[in-house]
Amino acid sequence: MGTLLQIFVFFCLSVGFLFLPENSDAFTGNDLSVQCQFVFRNVCFEFVRGSETWSQARGSCANRGGDLLKVVNSPIQMFLKNISREGNTSNFTWWLGEGVQGQHQEPTTTENAEVSKENCTYIKLDPFQLILTSDCNQRRGSLCTHNEWSASNTKNTMVSSHAIRSRPKRTLLSDMLASVTKIDSLLLAAEEELLRMERTADEPTNQNRDEFIKYLLLGTVRLLDDSILPDNDTVNKIIKCSTGILLLSMNKCDIKTNPNPTSLFEQVLEIFRIISELVVSKYPQQFIIRHPTGIIYQSTRRPAELGNAVLGSEQDGAFIKLPSFAALKSQLGGYDSITSQMAIFTKNPHPTDVHISGTVCSLLLSNNKKEIHLSDLSEMVEIFIPYPNASIPMNSTIVLEKNTKALTTINVSDPDVTIFLTVEPNANVALVLRLSEGSPPNDTYFSNTTILSLTEGYRWMITPEMLQHTRGVWYIESGLLNSSWEPGLTLRINSFTAKCVYWDVEKETWSTYGCQVGDKSTPERTQCLCNHLTLFGSSFFVMPNYVDLARTAELFSTLSENFVVLALLCTFFGLYLVTLLWACYSDRRARSKRKMTLLEDNHPGAQYNYLIGVQTGHRKNAGTTANVTVKLTGSDGESDTHVLTDPDKPVFERGAVDMFLLATPFPLGEVRNLRLQHDNSGGRPSWYINKVTVQDLQTRQVFHFFCNCWLSVDHGDNMTKKTFNAAKNNEVASFRNIFQTRTSTGFRDEHIWVSIVDPPSRSPFTRAQRVSCCMSLLLCTMAINIAFWNIPIKEDSPVVFEFGSMQITWQELMVGVQSGLLMFPINILIITIFRSIKPRVISKSHKGDSEASLRPPSVTIPSILKDTEEMISMMSISPKNKMSETHRLETTSDLSYALDMVHDFIQLMQGESESDPHWVYCSKFLLAGLCHLLMCLEKLDERNFPSPQDYLQTLNTTNILVRKAEMVFSSHLAYCPPPVKKRKKKATCWLPWWCVFLGWFLLLSISGISTFFTLLYGLDYGRAKSIKWVMSLGLSLFQSIFILQPLKVLGIAVFFALLLKPVAVEESEEIEQLKLEQQIKCGRYSGRHSL
Within a 10 A sphere around the Cβ of 884, how many other Cβ atoms? Predict the structure, then answer.
């Protein structure tokens, strides 16, 4: 039987014993020839239904040779409870003997306020309750017991799972055999035999054990054959009897010298499987059975519902997670419903030389007729197995001295074990670990190594492959990696091991084949990954129509008679050439609009950069001719108002995405608001703004602003100035936003036919390439369609899907699969190449610039005053700078006042003990402004000042401030270096630009081959068949363009929206070029190219 058993080898788990009742002491007494109604362990229980006081009841019981019941322990309690359920004694109360006592008895209720030695006790069976009363004169029935009772005096016997009456021992197994066809009698004999085995030394013997499980299995199978639906009590008794014999056999005294056969556990599991078939109609969804040896979970689902299904209970600790339905579909998709039965056992039922301890679980899949075997799954089955009594691994703390390393030694005794090693430092440092065998590792000798950090976690999973499946002593060395050592650095080290095996039924041994330990394992629970339940496989293939290539010349000679396919191909090629000319013209126009814009009104000294992406809507007349301005407001300050314009291209056209680089003198912090405004100029000033993104190019943080409104005096709310708040994270990742964005960009980019008309403005995939890819896809579709058109239908092909009168056979399905495999891979490869070509960024050539444009402007006192005033004004915007805005500078004396303010600000920055990016960029901006001022003063003549002394003093003061600003900048830069660019995994793997030739070569090749075979098949079919094929081709093209492609776009949009994956923000070399241009402007402005 192909069951899957997964176990974890680490901690031992103690197991309780049987559900059978504990022994009670035997009483001695007289043997009276009276008929007894109930017998339990050679003691007769007589219920006397009279109306007597306690004294009268005791006397009448003694006259009959008995005594009132004096002991109420757990077995007797269970016996009495069963009687109350099966008889009519529950509505009465019964006197008991003096000083009633017992083990684990339920709480006793006391009547009346005072308790004395004359108190009497009576019992109530439903609910079970012992009651102590001081009124012994009440009249009740009595419970009289007679000891050493003989079975010959028994008049009527009632049996339950916890109260077994006396029967002749010699007939128990014989009775089981005789009662195979009568399940109630079989279970009665089985319960009595279990009790006998528990009480008898050296039981169960091999013969008694084998006969017991054999008869129980036969009786259960008979229920299945006769289609008898058992009640809950019968099901519980079958499971208790099967697990009872299993526990007795596993705990027998000679288990080491006389082990159980492996077939014992398989027979128990077979009983479980039959039970599942019997109760599946009664419990179609799910039911749980808890028994002394573990738990059984059973559920029935449709095959599609098994994808990623969790079997078992995460609360109970053990559960199995199946792979996705895509991995199961090929092996389970043909069934209507599947019953899964997961059984958990607290003890290993197959003791072998392999040390197995802890929980064991099995998984069985069936279709209520036969067991279903799985194999070679593309995704792993996850089995989580708990350890309720697992102890916490011991931690060892090591003080790591300077220039030293920690060494851990592990003795590997099992070559298939997986080791989990945790090395956790008390500081945020990176560690390098090396593994070696036999001797400690060093820089040249080690077998494996890894790097641990805070972001990736400080745990290393060492697999059996890394240990080379070798026993012996292994060493692990832990040391710092690119981290500075600090005094008091400690490493807390702990480890645990895990192993996953399954029971190989054929070899009757535990095996690790196809199973491995998962990285989600913990000391309390192990994750096992397996790819099989058992083995099987199949295949099928459909051949296309045959065409004889040797007749190529003969077929082409018939073109004058059969020109249908040729005319169709010529028509498509003619349309392609016309569309290609239009696409090349449109690409040339769009190429000039792709460039990013460095804002001309950026201050030359500002070096903190933001990339602003403005997306104009697709509504009619959404573009604008007005001049648009923008202003950013952040948590640490705000920017100047900037004009969004580009002298080399039109901006804010309908459907366009315009990118601008905006520079500020210091970080704005978290961008919270964005203000857009236009001057309502031009012929079409109305503007529909869709969305704006602001990306901090230093921290890579992106802020989204969902506008979706008009800035117009004629539309919307008639406003040309609006302030927008940044979207929250849940708004950015919302299903609605991602779905709308993906759908909009999907039809313009993913839909290969529609994207020709309006592709994304910044996509490297040009219109000409898209048109050519559509032509290649069309030619491939024609060639494959005509090759498989009108193939002979196989009458014996099985029906895979049926809905009403529509049927899809296996042959038709395989034709579709093979067509896709022939057509899509090469075309997807070509499209991917064109999409992934790295755009060639051509640097701006300054040769054409006039000398006047490169010549610095003339230096005058008003220009110096204006530049100084602008520098102070921009620094005063930030509240952190604590700098008041200066008044208008009109004379050279005002310049001295402004320099004093700058000096105070430099002292403020010097007093800042903690550096952050704000002070770095502020000091850099101030240094650039002062250098520019010093350069201008040096070019200025002293006659522009009231006196030469004033000129020299201003020049010296500026020179001193430049040196101080340089020192402050260097100090802050040293203690707070610029943010390191995080190298993220690129969403797109860019190919070199020359790969475009490879794409064109593949495209032309596949188009030529497809054209040749299409024409050859058309000539081979003849004119009449070719006309019919052209008509069917039109339907296929309509299906592809208007059904399949839109469904693909919507499917991708829903997929990304459900995964809550926002659209990635664009990154390119063009951004780096714009930043370089801003740095060049700063170098020219300050006279220092190092800034």
Answer: 10
CB 755 within 8 A of CB 749: yes
- The DSSP string of 410-468 is EEE--TT-EEEEEEEESSS--EEEEEEESS---SS--SEEEEEBTTTBSEEEE-TTTTT
DSSP letter assigned to residue 746? I
Quote the distance between the C-alpha of residue 96 and its chain's center: 63
Looking at residue 67, its amino acid is: D
More confident: 251 or 82: 251
pLDDT computed for residue 170 by the predictor: 45
Name 75's Cβ contacts closer than 8 Å, sequence gap at least 6.
21, 22, 23, 24, 40, 41, 162, 163
What count of other Cβ atoms lies within 10 Å of the Cβ of residue 380?
Answer: 20
> pLDDT at position 594, please?
73
d(CA 339, CA 332) in angstroms, rounded, equals 11
CB atoms within 10 A of CB 40: 24
What is the CB-side half-sphere exposure of residue 404 using CA atoms within 13 A? 12
Using CA atoms, how far apart are residues 759 and 587, in angstroms rounded to an integer?
10
The C-alpha atoms of residue 383 and residue 344 are separated, in whole angstroms, by: 12
User: What's the count of helices (H) and strands (E) in the chain, helices before strands?
Assistant: 23, 40
d(CA 245, CA 19): 11
> CA quadruple 792, 797, 800, 802: dihedral positive or negative?
positive
403: left (phi over 0), alpha (psi -120 to 50) or beta: left
Q: Which helix (H) or strand (E) holds 96?
A: none
Beta bridge partners, 6, equal 361
Q: Is the dihedral of CA 788, 792, 793, 797 positive or negative?
A: negative
At 17, the amino acid letter reads F
DSSP label of 170? G
Q: What end-to-end distance do the CA atoms of the chain give, in Å?
A: 77
Q: What percent of the chain has pLDDT over 90?
A: 12
Please give the Cα distance from 369 to 377 (Å, whole number).
Answer: 23
Residue type, 948: P
* Neighbouring C-alpha atoms within 13 Å toward the C-beta of 1052: 16
pLDDT of residue 486 exceeding 50 = yes
Angle at 396 between CA 393 and CA 399, to 5 degrees: 155
Give me the count of residues in the chain: 1091
Sign of CA dihedral 475, 478, 482, 487: negative
Q: At 685, list the tokens.
A: 């000033």
- Judge if pTM exceeds 0.70: no
Chain position carrying tokens 């997964």:
6
Of 190, 136, 139, 126, give the one whose Cα is nearest residue 161.
190
| Average confidence (pLDDT) over 46-72 | 83
| Residue 255: partners with Cβ closer than 8 Å, 6 or more residues away | 249, 351
pLDDT (0 to 100) of residue 1052: 62
Report strand pairing: 515-517 vs 43-52.
Answer: unpaired
Cα radius of gyration (the chain)? 44
Q: How far apart are CA 1022 and CA 561, in angstroms?
A: 9
**Alpha-carbon span 715 to 1051, nearest angstrom:** 35
Other CB atoms within 10 A of residue 193 CB: 27
Q: Which residue has the tokens 């036919």?
A: 753
CA distances, 298 to each of 161, 312, 363, 752, 797 (Å): 24, 8, 10, 48, 35
What's the pLDDT score for residue 609?
94
Whether the pLDDT of residue 703 is over 90: the answer is yes
The region that residue 18 occupies, defined by phi over 0 for left and psi between -120 and 50 for alpha, beta otherwise, is beta
Residue 191 CA to residue 185 CA, distance in Å, equals 10
Q: What is the pLDDT of residues 344-379, one digit of tens each?
A: 777 776 666 666 666 777 787 887 667 787 777 878
Lookup: tokens for 456: 């990736």
Taking the C-alpha atoms of 99, 103, 109 and 111 in order, what is their torsion angle to the nearest 10 degrees? 0
pLDDT tens digits along 820-835:
666 667 777 887 888 7
